Amino acid sequence: MTETGSTRKDGMSHGAPTSYRFDAREYDVEAREALLKACACATPMASAGVALAARVLDQFEYFTIVGDTPPDRSVSDALRQGALTCLEAALVAMDIAFQEGIPAYLMAMTRRDPTSGGLLGHAAYIYQNAAGLFGSLAFSRHALQGHRMAEFRSKEDVAISYAHSYVRLGLMPLCFGIADAAVVTDGLQWRTNAQHMACLHARLQETQEFALEVEFA
Asked: Which of 22, 143, 174, 187 is deepest in the core (most CB within 10 A)?
C-alpha cells in the first residue's frame, strides 16, 4: 500500500497545530446528562483523559449509516439517542480526552466495498502523548477499526493503520485526510446544530487529499 498526495495550504491537514478548547456547557442539557452518566459508568475503570474517553464510548451503541448519507442531527441529538456514528464518537472522545495546550486532530477516511461499489468512511480522534507518539480513539462496528495505542511516530502512520485494517476486512481504502480540530471546527456549533454538523462533515471530506493505492492479493 502506498500513499500519494500533497498537503493543503489552508491549515486543514498540516502546519502548526492550534490549541483546541472545550466547555461541557456547549452540549444541551439532556445530552450533557447522557454524557455525564456515561462518564460516571466509566470512572471506576478510568479516571481521566484518553482512558476515560475510550470507556465512555463503550457505554453507547454504534449507529450504522444506511446508504452514504450521514444522519441529519447534532452530536447532542446522537447522545440523547444513545447511538453514535464514528465521527460523532470521535468528537465526543476529543472533548473528553482534551487537555489544555495539547493539539487535537480529526482523521477522515473513505473506503469502497469492492463487491457492492458502495462508499462509506471512517473517522477518528488522533492525539499525541507526552513521549511524542500518536494514538487514536475511534468507534466502529468493525473491531479492527477501533482505538489505536499511542505507538505511532506520526499522525499519518495512524491513518495508514486504519487503511491496512480495511484491506484485511476486504474493503478498499481510497483516501484520507487529517485536520487540526481547532481549524476544521472553527465557527461551527456541531454539538447542538445539525446543519453545522453537516458542514463539519463536508469540511472533513475536503481534507482527504492523500490518495491510497491498494493491491488486493
From this structure: 174
